[in-house]
């Protein structure tokens, strides 16, 4: 059963990491998550409360990377703590092997699975990131990754930093929801349909569908700096986490190889524009990204060899998008320096 994070449980599979490809079938994502929400009125039993919750994420995972970016852009570091797992996992769970003693320093857990089982002793599904965990009880609250970031924007507004961007502006929501739906179904998930295709036919269908969608967003971004206009929104966060992984992983590992990102001029410039914006590049860990995909997907890359490239220097080259007008934070301001202890290692990023 494939899940949002890539954690899998497959009957009859004997690999240590789990199986991702079902021979003869196209990839279908399991989208059933723990749908509890943390809200200002606490209607799900989880009220907004600074210091109560911990965001557990992996820099390797595109779905989790969204939450890392949004938390930083909104300045919620002092309100919601953050735990980072290692880039790889086994078939059971993501693990806290980056922390001293291999345990999360707040939750005391070795595995994120422990938070799921603390609330659901017979939890039957894959253990996914991002997950929000209640610190006092150690119980998972939600792993509904699309809703987590929207709630950070709307439900935690009282705790946003001064100058924080409005990532989900009410006046744009109808159009924005449609754009994000297209980005998710056709691009975010589209690369996985290519990579986990179990037949030539399903792969070629997924490939054509993915690049048709990339052409659509490229055309859109040819006339505006960001997906929704002159400032960044959550739509840009969602597209960025796929684009930044495209050349290191999806082009080769997932066979999304009509072109590299660096060969798609509009999308490459747009991606560099975001990468050079505080909150995006400074949360991007290329070493974790490559280790996750090439090590965990044993059925696609059985040797476990992690590519040395691509050269990352291009991410810091001028992009020219500022000539289109607009600014990433509009009337607001950029977030300050990355919180102490949350920095991406210098040798994992060209920003180092």
From TrEMBL:
GO cellular component: cytoplasm
GO molecular function: glutathione transferase activity
Region (Disordered): 1-22, 323-352
Superkingdom of origin organism: Bacteria
Keywords, ordered alphabetically: Transferase
Residue(s) at site: Lowers pKa of active site Cys: 250, 293
GST C-terminal domain segment(s): 169-293
Active site: 61, 192
Cross-referenced Pfam families: GST_C_2 (PF13410)
Family annotation (PROSITE patterns): GST_CTER
Cleaved signal peptide residues: none
Entry-linked Gene3D superfamilies: 1.20.1050.10, Glutaredoxin
Binding site for glutathione: 94
Protein name: Putative glutathione S-transferase
Source species: Pseudokineococcus lusitanus
């Amino acid at each position: 059963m494939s899940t949002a994070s890539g954690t899998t449980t497959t009957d009859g599979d004997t690999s240590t990491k789990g199986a991702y490809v079902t021979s003869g079938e196209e990839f279908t994502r399991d989208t059933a998550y723990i749908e509890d929400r943390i809200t200002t009125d606490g209607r799900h039993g989880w009220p907004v409360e600074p210091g109560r919750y911990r965001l557990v994420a992996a820099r390797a995972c595109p779905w989790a990377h969204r939450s890392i970016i949004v938390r930083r852009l909104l300045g919620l570091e002092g309100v919601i703590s953050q735990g980072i797992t290692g880039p790889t996992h086994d078939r059971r769970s993501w693990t806290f092997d980056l922390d001293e003693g291999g345990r999360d320093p707040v939750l005391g857990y070795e595995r994120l699975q422990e938070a799921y089982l603390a609330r659901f002793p017979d939890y039957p599904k894959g253990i996914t990131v991002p997950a929000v965990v209640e610190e006092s009880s150690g119980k998972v609250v939600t792993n509904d990754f699309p809703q987590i970031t929207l709630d950070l924007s709307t439900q935690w507004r009282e705790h946003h930093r001064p100058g924080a961007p409005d990532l989900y502006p009410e006046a744009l929501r109808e159009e924005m929801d449609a754009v994000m739906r297209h980005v998710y179904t056709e691009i975010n998930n589209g690369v996985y349909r290519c990579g986990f295709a179990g037949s030539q036919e399903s792969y070629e269908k997924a490939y054509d569908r993915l690049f048709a969608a990339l052409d659509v967003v490229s055309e859109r971004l040819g006339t505006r700096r960001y997906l929704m206009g002159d400032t960044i929104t959550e739509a840009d966060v969602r597209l960025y986490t796929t684009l930044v992984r495209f050349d290191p992983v999806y082009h080769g590992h997932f066979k999304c190889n009509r072109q590299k990102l660096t060969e798609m001029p509009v999308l490459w410039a747009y991606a560099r524009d975001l990468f050079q914006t505080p909150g995006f590049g400074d949360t991007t860990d290329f070493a974790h990204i490559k280790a996750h995909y090439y090590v965990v997907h044993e059925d696609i890359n059985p040797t476990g060899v992690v590519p040395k490239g691509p050269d990352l220097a291009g991410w810091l080259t001028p992009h020219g998008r500022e000539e289109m007008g607009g600014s990433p934070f509009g009337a607001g301001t950029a977030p300050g320096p990355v919180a102490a202890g949350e920095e991406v290692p210098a040798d994992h990023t060209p920003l180092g």
